[in-house]
């Protein structure tokens, strides 16, 4: 859906027609239509006020006469047993329905005289808008189309909007073409969703500082949050699911799960260091000891998403969370220890080789 707006009705209709003609060649679109119907035929009377006043007529009397002649006026009722039938006075059907005979209608004037309608009024036939949709008080036409098989509506709307770039740049001041429908709703929903994100990031950083009491560790934890996208993208591509609003919502939730795993791993490393282990051993042992709990927790979350995969609405979000969580969990157990060792310049301690250690019977 695309929205064409402007101050003049005819100009808006003309722009909408040009947009429809341009998009008619798009193989991804079918059944292109506008929500304004064709113009309605109307009959107008231009009254010669000088002649009308000379004959003792005014607009109100002339309107009442035409209303009586064409639509009719109730003059009485006819009773037949228990039924009442209205008696309406008006001219015969041929005179009412034949537009060429309207000019011959007799209009009553003072003194019991009559004058033909075309003596005091000029009849014009025109076309006018039967219905005008407005948005922000501006006349607005919505261009709508169905999509071809396998084409998403939002993608088709964005592509159609780009195809109209030359037309959009040539529009006069006050006229515009904008994306409408589900694509606009998704954009607005995403904008509303992202509004609290800055405050959310500040709150997350504050909570991490309270938990870790260390700026470098907080930064390392935050750097693992985007790892989920490495799994989200392949999962959506393999299943053919769209990157819509629910997926974006799932990505935000996924970031919180990844940060939680990072906090757990860093806390385990600190526990090993407090126990007196060297940094190198603490990083390795903590990663190994937390591997099973983190992987089992991730597996439980992934399995919990499987019943939603078949859902039309929640399916893309379930696929994104499952794929992103699997990749992010594996990568967190690899990337975070590397970041930790790099930041604190952890070097492998010099020790005897494992073979000498195994055959040293004195120990």
TrEMBL record:
It comes from the Bacteria. Keywords: Membrane, Transmembrane, Transmembrane helix. Pfam families: ACR_tran (PF00873). The keyword Ribosomal protein does not apply. The keyword Acetylation does not apply. InterPro entries: AcrB_DN_DC_subdom, Acrflvin-R. Signal peptide: none annotated. The chain crosses the membrane at residues 192-212, 219-237, 243-263, 294-314, 320-341. This is Nickel and cobalt resistance protein CnrA.
């Amino acid at each position: 859906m695309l929205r064409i707006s402007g101050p003049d009705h005819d100009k808006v209709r003309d722009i909408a027609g040009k947009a429809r003609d341009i998009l008619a060649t798009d193989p991804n679109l079918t059944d292109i239509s506008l929500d304004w119907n064709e113009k309605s035929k109307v009959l107008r009377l231009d009254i010669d006020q000088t002649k009308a006043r000379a004959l003792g007529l005014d607009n109100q009397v002339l309107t009442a006469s035409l209303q009586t002649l064409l639509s009719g006026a109730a003059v009485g009722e006819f009773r037949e047993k228990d039924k009442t039938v209205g008696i309406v006075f008006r001219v015969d059907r041929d005179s009412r329905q034949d537009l060429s005979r309207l000019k011959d209608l007799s209009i009553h004037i003072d003194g019991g005289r009559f004058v033909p309608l075309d003596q005091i009024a000029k009849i014009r036939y025109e076309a006018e808008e039967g219905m005008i949709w407005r948005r922000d008080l501006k006349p607005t036409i919505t261009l709508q189309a169905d999509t071809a098989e396998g084409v998403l509506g939002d993608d088709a709307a964005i592509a159609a909007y780009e195809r109209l770039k030359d037309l959009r740049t040539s529009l006069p001041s006050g006229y515009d073409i904008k994306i409408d429908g589900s694509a606009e709703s998704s954009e607005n929903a995403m904008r509303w969703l992202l509004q609290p994100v800055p405050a959310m990031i500040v709150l997350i950083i504050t909570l991490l500082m309270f938990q870790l009491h260390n700026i470098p560790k907080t930064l390392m934890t935050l750097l693992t949050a985007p790892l989920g996208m490495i799994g989200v993208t392949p999962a959506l591509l393999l299943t053919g699911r769209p990157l819509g609003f629910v997926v974006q919502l799932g990505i935000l939730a996924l970031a919180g799960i990844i940060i939680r795993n990072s906090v757990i791993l860093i806390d385990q490393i600190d526990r090993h260091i407090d126990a007196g282990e060297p940094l190198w051993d603490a990083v390795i042992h903590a990663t190994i000891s937390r591997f099973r709990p983190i992987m089992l927790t991730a597996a439980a979350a992934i399995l919990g998403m499987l019943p939603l995969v078949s859902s039309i609405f929640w399916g893309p979000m379930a696929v994104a969370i499952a794929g992103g969580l699997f990749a992010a969990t594996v990568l967190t157990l690899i990337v975070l220890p590397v970041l930790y060792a790099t930041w604190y310049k952890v070097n492998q301690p010099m020790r005897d080789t494992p073979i000498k250690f195994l055959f040293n019977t004195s120990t």
